[in-house]
DNA sequence: TTATTTTAGCAACAAAGTTGCATTAATATG
DNA sequence: CATATTAATGCAACTTTGTTGCTAAAATAA
């Protein structure tokens, strides 16, 4: 069973308290004296496996993490749209926005990553 | 003006001759004695800027490259679906599949990356 | 053919992520 | 509450991916 350590609690708080998705580097800056950077990687993995947070790959390939409302619920999914602003750099979840996929029937869909890049509402 | 060197021609041939998208590492394996790995990065950048190929970010964050039919045409775009098989690892373009986005009007969309992960037709 | 400009190679560097192992902390059990 | 058990952490070392500066070598223009 997974243990709730100080570092894990702190990192989950940071992610849940953020309105935007955060990179490992951004989390590291906020946890300077809490734990090692390797520990952050391991805690992020654990939180993803425990469905507390989800992983978002930005259009540039950089991995981000966010907690969304559905995360805590069972039978949840993260198939929503993410928006990455090229001006302010913020990566935001659009939890109410999903899409329809029409792939050939032989294809079994497990998950998808949809990240839209452009200029956000604040920056336009 | 961009110059058509041996390495650039060879790399474009490899990408155009492939039915699946290729990573820098995969391209490097096929160009062992052709050129340096830094040169491959620079050629890939050039080919993207010249709209000969396009860049796809996989669900794991790994960058892939593919040439699609629309690439050579002017006013083309790469807003199509990509499928990443978790069994065979192949990343395929679905050039005929696009999606509808309904973001708030203040959001200006520039590009998107949509990669679906699951089991492909061959592996299911 | 020679001048000009782009491209290539090389070394060095940086960011992101992984692994092994000894130590420390959290939880379970008596 | 004490201690055994197991999970988490820190640290060092390493890998992968990508970038930058600079000189040498090619490609194209004149
Ligand atoms: Mn999200
Ligand atoms: Mn494609
Ligand atoms: Zn913005
Ligand atoms: Zn497959």
Question: Your description of this structure?
Answer:
- The structure is a homodimer of 124-residue chains.
- The first copy, chain A, has 124 residues and is α+β, with helices and mostly antiparallel strands.
- Chain A is 24% helix and 25% strand.
- The first copy, chain A, has a single domain, classed as Arc Repressor Mutant, subunit A (Orthogonal Bundle), CATH 1.10.10.
- In chain A, the strands form two sheets. A three-stranded antiparallel beta sheet of chain A has the order 1-3-2. A three-stranded mixed beta sheet of chain A has the order 5-4-6, with no helix packed on it.
- In chain A, a hairpin with a 5-residue loop joins β2 (54-57) and β3.
- Chain A binds chain B through residues 57-63, 81, 83, 86, 94, 97, 99-104, 106-121, 124, and chain B through 57-63, 81, 83, 86, 94, 97, 99-104, 106-121, 124.
- β6 of chain A pairs antiparallel with β6 of chain B.
- Chain A binds a DNA duplex (30 and 30 nucleotides) through residues 1-8, 24-25, 35-39, 41-43, 46, 61-63.
Q: Helical percent range of chain A?
A: 10-25%
Give the number of domains of chain A. Answer: 1
- The H/E string of chain A reads HEHHEEEEE
**Amino- and carboxy-terminal Cα gap of chain A:** 46 Å
Oligomeric assembly: homodimer
- Taking Cα atoms only, what radius of gyration of chain A do you get, to the nearest Å? 15 Å
């Amino acid at each position: 069973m997974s243990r709730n350590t100080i570092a894990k609690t702190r990192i989950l708080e940071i992610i849940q308290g953020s309105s935007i998705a955060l990179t490992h580097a951004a989390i590291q800056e906020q946890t300077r004296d809490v734990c090692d950077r390797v520990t952050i990687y391991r805690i992020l993995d654990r939180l993803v496996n425990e469905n507390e947070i989800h992983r978002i790959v930005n259009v540039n390939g950089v991995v981000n993490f966010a907690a969304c409302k559905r995360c805590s619920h069972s039978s949840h999914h993260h198939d929503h749209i993410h928006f990455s602003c090229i001006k302010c750099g913020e990566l935001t979840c659009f939890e109410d926005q999903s899409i329809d996929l029409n792939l050939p029937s032989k294809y079994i869909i497990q998950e998808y990553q949809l990240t839209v890049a452009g200029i956000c509402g604040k920056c336009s």
